[in-house]
Amino acid sequence: MTKTFTPTRFKELSNPTALEQGNNPDQKLYEAIKPKLDELYREPSEETIAKILKYAKKR
Q: What pLDDT shows up at residue 58?
């Protein structure tokens, strides 16, 4: 009979991975630029939304 499942290695799962530890270069880059990305986020005013909708209806 053949095995129909992938065995789980609990020892490997209990060790923190590079992503969880923050050793991943991509994670470090994200943490470095996160404050700047937060500055780019803006809430549009009701007036701006109304202008966009009015423009969209004209098309």
A: 86
